[in-house]
């Protein structure tokens, strides 16, 4: 449930009613930023759901996740190389 | 698309799939004796099929598609009430597109629209508010549907309507909550689940702690996950790791979006606008205590149940579901969609019998749409 | 005309109607006679073995004018394309207008001008037509129905039945621009983008492809998008089609619209896109020929034909998964979950 | 199909649409292939000197079903007639449907059945088609647009330009039945009558007339009635036409409707009536040929062509007065004064 | 058609024409020095042209087309008010077809309809009443237009609405009366008329005596006539006979329909529902005392003027007519239609400048439609 | 003004509301007969205007009018014959 999509808050539309313009891949729509207005959201990335910016995206955390995945990728490659070597050894007569 | 494409990287996915396979092998999981992992959320179900993860992942991992699709768990009686409201003269009935095709006993909202009811699809409750502003002589009703992800948007819209003093806007509130049905599932003695993928966007609002009971009281791992394919694979890996290590904890894979304690503005809006219903009926699951929300008396003027004397509180006698529909069993993982006798016969997306065939998040529609149909044929 | 908007009088069959037709339509389309039938001769049609191709489509679109075109352009391109994808050289069009009372006459003039221009550039003539006026609330501005006649030269025979396993599947450019443009232009979802409709006549493109190398079948991907066209063809041909997600040409904005609304770009409408099936060996020459024309600039292979299961269309996902690409069920609805 | 009414899903380009088209239309029209273009050959078209005739009309009528026909019958007859009056032998029709959301599917089936039956009896085939669905309130049940192709045999050349002073003016039967029937059937004027629409295909009738004796021109009298057809022809031919009130065939009920509402039967719509111009010497043979067919049973001479004033149509009244019969201005409105 | 066809008999007409010619010759009437006979009623104008009587009758008889077409004499300001009412949200504006194309300053009712106003043509005020019954949430306004022939039907409909307690039906009353403008014409020193053809259907309601003043006070013959061609010809003959005999009397040619004292039920309904306005504006004739009717206060609930705060009583400043339009002069017989500089140029039925070109009873439309157009070209 | 047309009142539709069916050349419509209900209007001819029977048609009077016209016709014929004879006489040499 709950289709959410990352978009960048690019400008205020009406600060009084907490409406700002969000952009997703070049597509713009005014969204309500009440939930993320604790800090100035302009320029930030947020998770957009049914016309509301529901959460700011933590860019560092995103980078950390990707980093961890890349590390895993390398580790897994090493494991697979080892496994391939093992298999080659086993297959050797 | 930033914060999405990176998490769809095939190379990263390959590594994750390989690591999962290793872990699953190590745990002795096989097609015959799989590990059962429930993705609670229909959004996850959708991603799994959209990216073909069900076929890519180690055969010892079996996905159980959980009740986290608000359209799928909506009892037919609610749809009937939507139609009844929509058919009243003067009403503009607004809804997310998802609900348009869900069958009621008489008709779906799409059929009601074809019959002359003014039913309009909106992308946001804000669009419904705007319709109310522009049509002061009409009553604009918004169909509030969804879990905690969506409840704040409706709540904020009701608050906005109240601030503006709009007299022709109301919400037909059928919002529901995630933790309660999970508890109900876990209390079912037949249920064998090895872990849960937690709905990331729900936790974006309510944080991760509402799931503590899953680990603490039931000893099951749960990982709150994002919706991109690597998010899902990483979460599976994290669950397998917990299983391998004999642990059961609430973990957060989706830290870039999910704060531990959720979003305070959203939580405050929810608290201000809604109160728990004593219980609420779920399709396939029956009545579940405290699993539904209704609008508090202070916002009565915006409550379609009050305005129209209709709704859950007034129609407690459960309306029977369509005979032959096995949605309930599929939804709790007791049947695979293809095991439902109606699948592909009486029930297909063009003529759905059950809600699981309507929503693109429904397990049956996903099976049909994304290729597991042949199994049934 | 002194009138600025259409009233029921303009549909009555009398002088007001005649005036409307002359001021707005025949002055621009310039049919050869005032008889209510065109009388036509074409040498190509009289060649032994030549066949006549005949097709029709009604066009209904909101808004009537949108970035990249209007309903008139759609009506010309759509029918030209339905002729072209069957191997026919489009010759003549008819144009019938159902106009809602209250419609602005200046708008009708713009639509007629677009049609005349598009017909000219597509090398077809609008030779006969009709107008009707319906009461307000019983139409939607204007509906346009075009029918087209073309000639299939002797020896040309393409169609779904000729599709073979091993065929390459080619599209002529980015997908879904039209559908996404209309969704945004409609305004009720409050989305704004810079995308334009892909609306274009593909007669020259098809002729170029036919001249370049043997090809088996083509179809324009309109309502229901690429997915529906592929499903139709796979079913009619009794083959399977496998496309590759990584090869699909998609504009970021179209992806954006789809992500926001929970739509699948494979099902978005196009109005200047076709999918073409040819032997693998023909593909390079056909691609080259297509790419030499603006409407084929983005031509790429997106998949290939498999023997079976008959009627099945599947897509290899970016990381090696596969998913069924079924026919669209009803219409794509924006979703939130 | 399980559905009883059309929803937007039936217009989406996907499976629901396919199902609707198959259940309602192609099952009845039985086109030869599933390609979205008919591919046709006709020996008559390839004869040297043969010309192709091409015409189109959109049909909008309330109510959709009425005594004597329905919109489908109109759509077939109307286009067959537009071909026939030009001397063409009608061959093929296209049929495009714009369906309003909520339309009853059983009604669509009845309309399709009527069309198939009328096409068969008129000797034409419905070879290609289209369906679109529009939202409720943006259509009116269903609109049908037909286009038609016919062949004008070598040597056949009739049309307004050939009309000569001295020509006899012939109609094939009583006038205004269709218009009066629709006015009554609409219900809002609360009139009831036993009249039926005159809706009929006139292909055979025209062929019979052409075979009987030389004739100069014919036109079907549809919207705007006999008066508008005569005015058009008189203008195009640069002649005057004088008709005789005493010779006009009118049913008493049609006169009754006109008297009650203050209308002029000369302007009432017909859907199975044509006006034919032939040399005075041809008239007896043509009348005889026409009267041998049911749709020409009531054929009579109603007037003749005069050299001028060009474009003027006048009527000799029953007691020797003369009045101008101008083209209808807007639409005929019921009047009380 | 019984009681119609017999009176269209060409043989009878020939005899009448010949007798008229004899009388006219005897009176020395010629094209250069014609007898001027005014047919007051537009219905007579219509019949004259429809049957070509103007061309058949002796050339010493010249028809002057009188002000008896309710559409033609309606000032543009009334049309503007109709449009204003019709454009109000919620209103269904009902009218006889005749009024649809009459130009207002901004637009005609037909153009207002094209612009979105809900304007419906009805055959009878009874149909408007029925619309009101079927659309209780809408306000149905009936445009009450016409002379004494039509006033009873509107009055009876108002009485019926009152009996049923309909709250959403009202009449925009612009009914007018025949005798007053005739008196105004006769008071015009420039006017030379030799006799009048009286409107038969008006007399069917009010009888023949309201015209007594024409014969008594002004010494002019008047014959109340039916609408078939022999009716008209007979009436002309009767006028000529009076002239020849030096008499001036009110005679009744149309005895089969017109009772000497009119219809008591109709007269009672008129008296119950309407009262005279102090004066009313006529296109081309200006203000004429006591020539218009308004709804009595006891039926205020059905008076659109009251409901919408609009109408004649409220807009006495006369709104200027379109420049260049000579309708006024044509209507009183001072100009022939073809003498109006706009005839066939700025003004034609497809784009009428003046009301006389709109109504098929208008002299200009009749000239155009029935063939006297050439004179202007 | 005031298009009126003779129709026959053929049956009651709803006597209470004084609605009856009128027929004009085979065309039927319910009309209000309040104005002619003094005597039973069924079977009688009336003058119909905007959905109301406004007056009963006096059949005797109609016959008298036609009779007068026919008499005139004969008289006029006689006059014309005489005139023709006169002319013939005058023309005679
Ligand atoms: S196939 Fe249909 S009826 Fe069966 S469980 Fe799925 S949705 Fe329900
Ligand atoms: S021609 Fe037109 S403007 Fe002139 S008097 Fe007639 S209606 Fe009026
Ligand atoms: Mg087509
Ligand atoms: Mg097409
Ligand atoms: Mg096509
Ligand atoms: Mg036409
Ligand atoms: Mg509309
Ligand atoms: Mg035509
Ligand atoms: Mg036609
Ligand atoms: Mg025609
Ligand atoms: Mg089509
Ligand atoms: Mg409608």
TrEMBL record, chains A, F:
Gene Ontology MF, one: iron ion binding
Gene3D superfamilies documented for this protein: 2.30.30.140
GO BP annotations listed: protein maturation
Pfam families noted in UniProt: HupF_HypC
Superkingdom of source: Bacteria
Biological function: Involved in the maturation of [NiFe] hydrogenases. Involved in the biosynthesis of the Fe(CN)(2)CO cofactor.
Family listed: Belongs to the HupF/HypC family.
PANTHER family documented for this protein: HYDROGENASE MATURATION FACTOR HYBG
The protein's name: Hydrogenase maturation factor HypC
Organism of derivation: Stagnihabitans tardus
Taxonomic lineage from the root: Bacteria, Pseudomonadati, Pseudomonadota, Alphaproteobacteria, Rhodobacterales
Gene name per UniProt: hypC
UniProtKB/TrEMBL annotation, chains B, E:
Keywords recorded for this protein, A-Z: Iron, Metal-binding
InterPro entries: Hyd_form_HypD (IPR002780), HypD_1 (IPR042243), HypD_2_sf (IPR042244)
Pfam families attached to this UniProt entry: HypD
Stated name of the protein: Hydrogenase maturation factor
GO biological process, one term: protein maturation
Family: Belongs to the HypD family.
NCBIfam families: hypD (TIGR00075)
Lineage: Bacteria, Pseudomonadati, Pseudomonadota, Alphaproteobacteria, Rhodobacterales
GO molecular function: 4 iron, 4 sulfur cluster binding; carbon monoxide binding; iron ion binding
UniProtKB/TrEMBL annotation, chains C, D:
Gene3D superfamilies per UniProt: PurM-like C-terminal domain, PurM-like, N-terminal domain
InterPro entries attached to this UniProt entry: HypE, PurM-like_C_dom, PurM-like_C_sf, PurM-like_N, PurM-like_N_sf
Name of the protein: Hydrogenase expression/formation protein HypE
The PurM-like N-terminal domain, residue ranges: 47-152
SUPFAM superfamilies: PurM C-terminal domain-like, PurM N-terminal domain-like
GO biological process: protein maturation
NCBIfam families: hypE
Organism, scientific name: Stagnihabitans tardus
Entry-linked Pfam families: AIRS, AIRS_C
PurM-like C-terminal domain: residues covered: 164-313
Family (UniProt): Belongs to the HypE family.
